[in-house]
Write a structure and sequence with these properties.
Layout (H helix, E strand, L loop, with lengths): L1 E2 L4 E5 L3 H10 L5 E5 L25 H10 L3 H7 L3 E4 L4 E5 L2 E2 L8 E4 L2 H13 L4 E4 L2 E8 L6 E8 L8 E4 L2 E4 L7 H7 L7 E17 L10 E4 L7 E8 L3 E8 L9 H9 L5 H6 L2 E18 L11 E3 L5 E2 L7 H17 L6 H25 L10 H19 L1 H11 L11 H10 L2 H4 L5
């Protein structure tokens, strides 16, 4: 059976990256079909295709800005439906290296909601677009290509309900793979005669465990939405206690290199109590547990270097975790997917023919490189993490340690740090001369060197 229609785009995967892609494609294509192996419509609970769905999720400040641009009014709707909102630097109690970061109004919006809640909000907006439809509970069998294998012309799918594996071919002018970390595009490319995609893996051995609570006695300060104790080289354990929709709180604890928080209630509480500061352990004394802790493991950061390829078929793009899968402790994944959607939008709206190689290079430069370098550099601060540390890396790590110390004492440094962490500014913003002087002064580095500033 074959279905053919011109001016159609197909998105593989209905998670956040796929939804963002569908939204921008709808501006340029008469029809957009989102295919997923899960049921999507009306689903408000964690899905099988999102195994980390029961863990805490963060949408960085830049991600919030982008989804508001893509779906005007969505932030207001999220809050109206129970989501917590606050200033990233002013309404979150942050601890770096066991010290409380100076609180200040940064103008950066932070939303704290569950992953299923946020995904439902975005999915409902996408479904309102007349150009978009969902093909749910279908497996993606493979790509369809021209005889010379120079262009992808569609995908082959099979419904879960068909026991005999009956396949349907859906033709498309463009296929966007947003199927996640387990993306099969590298395999499909090799089958079509293209070179193997270079894959970079950075072992981190991260484990995190989350538990939901009802608020019995509110442990938060006025207008506070979260408490974040960031892991440090001295104490490589961290946790976050974030308000969620429905008057609940999610507490997620994490550790690296095999030091994982237990999934039994007693062990989980003991892990929380072992953190550098007592705030989260004190907070959960006023909370009522809802169910047992739920664990998740993340062995390694993964990046597929599509931007290094010299051959790639027309009619195919990749996005989301299938390109780069980040250490979840940095809460970058959804925001990078949103940044990638902007790159997709720019390329499909261009009057020039869509050039996938150009797109892949721009995707790396505009969405992936900065967050990847920020994350890799942060991970290398932990002595047990594998990886080379040349002089420039060691210098950068030393300076970032000063930035974090200065953020405890100087509101302007705290805001600048949060703007970089929130992916609003590039890391080099922390090297602006005026800020460097503030860092050297507030961190005590200048005084230690006998320099008066």
């Amino acid at each position: 059976m074959s279905i053919q229609k011109k001016n159609r785009a197909i998105v593989l995967g209905g998670s956040m990256a796929g939804l963002f892609a569908a939204r921008v494609l709808a501006d340029s294509y008469a029809e957009v079909i989102v295919i997923d192996r899960d049921a999507l419509t009306g689903v408000t609970e964690p899905r099988r295709g999102v195994p980390q769905g029961r863990q805490v999720h963060g949408l960085q400040a830049r991600g919030q800005q982008i989804i508001e641009d893509l779906f005007p009014g969505i932030t207001k709707q999220i809050v109206a439906d129970g989501g917590a909102i606050g200033d990233m630097a002013g309404n979150i109690r942050w601890y770096l290296n066991g010290k409380r970061v100076a609180q200040a109004h940064s103008g950066l919006t932070s939303l704290t909601v569950t992953r299923p809640f946020l995904e439902t909000q975005v999915r409902d907006r996408v479904l309102e677009l007349s150009q978009v439809s969902f093909l749910e509970q279908h497996d993606i069998v493979g790509l369809q290509a021209t005889e010379d294998r120079g262009r992808i012309t569609g995908v082959r799918v099979s419904p879960h309900s068909e026991a005999d594996g009956t396949e349907t071919t859906l033709h498309a002018d463009l296929v966007v793979d947003a199927s996640g970390r387990g993306s099969r595009t590298p395999v499909w490319l090799e089958e079509l005669g293209y070179p193997r995609v270079e894959e970079e893996r950075r072992k981190i051995g991260l484990g995190y465990t989350s538990r939901l609570y009802e608020i019995r006695d509110d442990p938060y300060e006025k207008d506070e939405i979260s408490i974040g104790v960031v892991s440090s080289p001295a104490t490589p354990r961290g946790a976050i206690a974030a308000k969620q929709e429905g008057g609940r709180v999610i507490v997620t604890a994490y550790g690296i290199l095999g030091d994982h928080p237990p999934a039994d209630p007693e062990g989980f509480d003991a892990f929380i109590q072992s953190l550098q500061v007592p705030d989260i352990h004190q907070a959960i004394q006023g909370l009522e547990p809802v169910g047992d802790p739920v664990p998740y493991r993340f062995p390694a950061n993964q990046r597929r270097r599509y931007e290094h390829l010299t051959r790639f078929p027309d009619g195919l793009l990749v996005t989301g975790d299938g390109v780069c899968s980040f250490n979840p402790a940095y809460a970058q994944g959804m925001t990078v997917a949103a940044l990638a959607a902007l790159t997709i939008r720019r390329h499909v709206e261009s009057d020039a023919p869509l050039d996938p190689l150009r797109y892949l290079k721009d995707l790396a430069a505009e969405a992936v490189d900065g967050p990847w370098e920020l994350m890799v550099g942060g991970d290398l601060a932990f002595p047990g993490v594998e990886g080379e540390r040349p002089p420039m890396t060691r210098l950068t790590l030393a300076y970032m340690k000063l930035v974090q110390e200065a953020a405890v004492h100087d509101e302007e440094v705290a805001i600048a740090f949060m703007r970089v962490f929130g992916l609003v500014d590039a890391p080099h913003a922390l090297l602006e001369p005026g800020l460097v002087l503030r860092v050297l002064k507030a961190s005590g580095a200048a005084a230690s060197a006998g320099i008066e500033l």
